[in-house]
Amino acid sequence: MTKTYLLQSWNEKMTSPDQDFRFMALSDLTNEITRDPSVFTGDEPAEMKTLEHVMKLIEDTISEVKNQAVQCLGQLTKILRDSHQDFVIEKLISLFNGKDDELRDVAGLALKTVVTNIPENIVGRACSKVGPRLLRQLQTPSTPPEAILEGLTILNILNTRVPDEVAKLEPKPITVFTQLLKHNRVAVRKRAIVTIAQFIPTSSPSVFGTVLRDYISPSWGSSIPLDRKVTAVQLVGAIARTSPQRIGPVVGETLPGLFSAISKDDGELKESCLQSLESLVLRCPQEVTPSLNQIINSALEYIKFDPNYAADDDEDEDEEMAEVDDDDDDDGAADAYSDDEDTSYKIRRSATKVLAAVIGTRPELLSKIYQTVSPVLISRFGDREESVKVEVWATYMVLLNQTSVYSGTLGGRENEAVAGSKRKRQDETMEVEDSPLDLLRSQVAALCKALLKQLQTKSPAATSQAGFQLLIELVTVLPGALSQHASSIISCAKATLSQSGANTTTTLHTTTLSFLSLFFRTHSASCFNTSIPTITPVLLTEATQKHPRVASEAFKVFSSLLQATQPVTSGDWVLQIYKEAVNRLSRNDTDSEVRASAEEVIGNLWISATPTVSGQGGVEWDALRKGARPEGAVRVIKKVAASNVSMPDDWVVQSVEWVLGVLRRSGRGGRVESFECLDVLLAKGTVSDEIIKDVINQLKQYLTIADITVLSQALTTLSLLLEKYSKVTYPIVETQVVGLVSSLACSSLVSGAALSSTEDFYGTLVTVDNQIASHIIPSLMTSLDRAGREGSASNVSKCVARVVKCAMGIAAGTIAEFHKHIKPGTKAKESQIVLSLLTLGEIGRNVDMSIQSNVFNDVLQFYTADSESVRSAAAFASGNICIGNTHIFLPIIVNIIQKDPSRRILALHAIKEVVSNCSHGQLEAVAEVVWTPLFERSDTAEEATRNVASASLGKLAAVDPSRYLGQLRAKLQDPSPAVRATVLSALRYTLVDIASEYDDQLSPLIPEFLSLMSDKDLTVQRLTLSTLNAAARNKPHLVQDHLQQLLPLLYAETVLKPELIRIVEMGPWKHRVDDGLEARKTAYETMYTLLETCLRKLDLNEFLNHVLVSIGDEADEIKVLGFMMLFRLSQVAPTAVAQRLDEATGELEKTMKDVAVTKDTVKQDLERASELQRSCLRAIAGLSKIRTAGTAPSFDAFVSRLEQTKWGPELKELRQGN
After folding, report:
1. C-alpha to C-alpha distance for 918 and 958, rounded to whole angstroms
2. pTM metric for this prediction
3. Of 8, 441, 942, 959, which one has the greatest count of Cβ atoms within 10 A?
4. What confidence tens digit (pLDDT) does each residue in 123-162 have?
């Protein structure tokens, strides 16, 4: 249905002499089309009439009306008929080619709007109409520069949408654009450069070859005019940013021209050369490597470029700059140069950015950078131009961040690898270069001197903030590095915090306070004790500020100060901050962040300044407990109770009562912390009997499987009560709790920490009174019978074994009781047999059953049982009974392995139990007995047998590597794939368990073992990759030195191999099976591990190439691994990743598209797609935080679109969480 009445009204208003009517009619029409695109459906005359009116208003005399007409046309273009689209294009081209400047500008804007919004199905036709005319217009010498600029923009939009159609245009676009590079207007040349750079990626390689041959290469000659050199240099930089794969192969030919041009005496040319060098370093890292030293030297030369300022020598440069800055009224200096005319700062800033690019992408050069670049950067900390100064500081922050990431100061697995590598080299006599951290430490004095001098001078707030951010980064990388400069630093911070509101900002205050908090946490109190009286008055003022961020950070500073100086025995500031914290906690309008920081201060005051706060009447505890959110108070009470501070008994009692109240009210999330706090309070042993009874009564309601975590906590607390308050607790537990716990112990849902807590509860209970042991076991058995099939025999067996272990007097009777159910000819039910076998196994681990040798023989008879669960339980029982006396029982199992094929797999499982649960001493004694029979089982076609054997072999090899590793190595070249697979699996287990003192024996074997990545057998390939993964995770320092050999093999396994894909027919359906998927997935898992543990040894650009491939893999699980690696890379290599965001955009966008629902779609498909999208979204959140303006336009546009979808809120939340 058409809205004729509305269209008629708008058409009448569009012809009105009143400009407001015309404007509103266009606005209303735009809004209606946006709301209802079918407004013209079935009414072609009305559409044409409306379109004619809109096109007429493009030529209106009122600017606002013309602009609104352009906006309206953008929406109309989306819904017009094809013939009407032609009318619009023809009309706009006509206006654009006219001589009226104003109309040409409006027509150009309208054309841009149309080609942006025109539907995909006709944009090609529009291109064929618009393109040739625009190109001919650009060739016409009389075309005004403004029209050229608009024409280039329109062609760029068309190239983005239909590059194939643009490539067919005549005359050839690139030919036309290169002619414009000689235009006398700078703006035209620059726009032509941008346009050429945008066209290169979508054009054929020959197009770039033409540009290089006809324009860039001839521009390096000595007789070429400077403006042409500038244009050529800028073109190189632009192409490097948009199409590094094209310019990469010719970088070696291009760089000499850049180095030659930079030496010319022209400021713009020098700046352009440096900008192009920066782009090449970022976008073509491998290609510029041979010339990297020359690039660094050029940047170091021009970072000092300041022809209008002359210093006597480098050492006095900072001081003389400071004098120039301080003497604002020095007429002599003003006569020497004019800041308005001096553009040399642009050259220095560009040189600084080149150094930042090198530092951000070349972690392997950190030591060299500290030797050559760092001193120069420090010398430029006092640049007289603020923008350059801030850029230099930002560059040094990049250097510190790289040091933090690649020198192991972030902790974690990479740290372990570094430590292991140091251990490995500690006995070597060869000279090793100083580490980046050592070199940084040697330059701290010069850095602090230069930076503090700038912070002490009058500077804009943003500059001062950048300085304190640099100090934060320095202290993060080198804790304690500023000890020698503590007095000056605190004085500088005090001056900054004392500035008037007109000269400072809230952000500067919070940054300064954050630095002070970190400084006090990471430095010894002895270095700043004398400065405390001078800084605390300012900090107290900050703590009273209304702005929540400032007050919160001030409280955090006091917390750090209290922790650093404890015990604090004097100082008025202690009492003052106490009063301010209590004041904040007592008020209902206190911000949550401020409240949390004030709560932390109260806790630290009690621990560090007990004499001062203990005499204040305890008002702080009342204020803490009255808060709306009790979590903070719970943490404070727990912290104080766990400290060495002696708190009065009434405080403990009040706190226990309050925590019990919190437990009643808390949701699931707050209960864990409340239980932990309650345990700390109860452990003091000063709580009355009545309160203990209240605690037990409340704990009983948590003895349920509704919340397993809370159940675990409740059982832990009950165990504590039995231990500390047994006289009161035991009678209640015996009569009211044991039955409940017995029922819970039978549940299969009780596992992990909850099961451990259950076992500990029984152990504590029996320790308190051995007599109850004989009652607990029947209670457990009865509960298991009631549970039926839902019951867990494994859980009950573990609990019974714990009871027996703590009351050995009942061991013989318990063994006899369970043994009767497995005697020959037993009539027991299967469930009873399984329970008996499991229980005898659990008990046998700690009790020598050689006296009851018939028990072991009766267990072995169940190796041939019909039931799988009975056979499994028998293998478990025999293995664990064997641990009790390996001398008697182990030969029997070994004999079965060697002589009884039908029972061999179960005997191997029994051996695995022995190897897994024996002590190290026992293993050394039995290793020789079991090694040979296990090794003989490696050459078998049964994968299950091989897996069990390899697990045991690996653990045995870890016990005596010098003896067994060689035997594993000898089997590597065995012709049987089964043997090779067993050896690799065994090595994987060895890597987990082997002690570090055997690393020297293991290291030479790593390359030989892992060379099997190229084995012809798929299983061997996959296991080799899995072994490399284990080595990288558990022994990264052994892998690092061999990565150069191993990485090519690893990367080769990430490639999708079509020859391993087969089609399986399942009835009427055909299923595609990828036999190489598991190996490929393992390869990517190994890459992720290497990223965590061997980061310093990776070529991140090569690594990133394979990560970008992974996010486009056809397997969702590999995509998830790719997204995880992208997220991690955004944290450790932001500079390198930021340059390649556009390459990832296509696959990211494809993943985030809504799933197409068909008749075959099931719920699991939607859930799987949703999980994949969330993984992708997390990567996008991390990547969006490292993007820089203009570096990745496609990614920026994608993120903007994503923010407008249903994923927008979640993306925002992830960014904040990251």
Report:
1. 13
2. 0.85
3. 959
4. 888 898 889 989 998 998 888 899 999 999 999 999 888 8
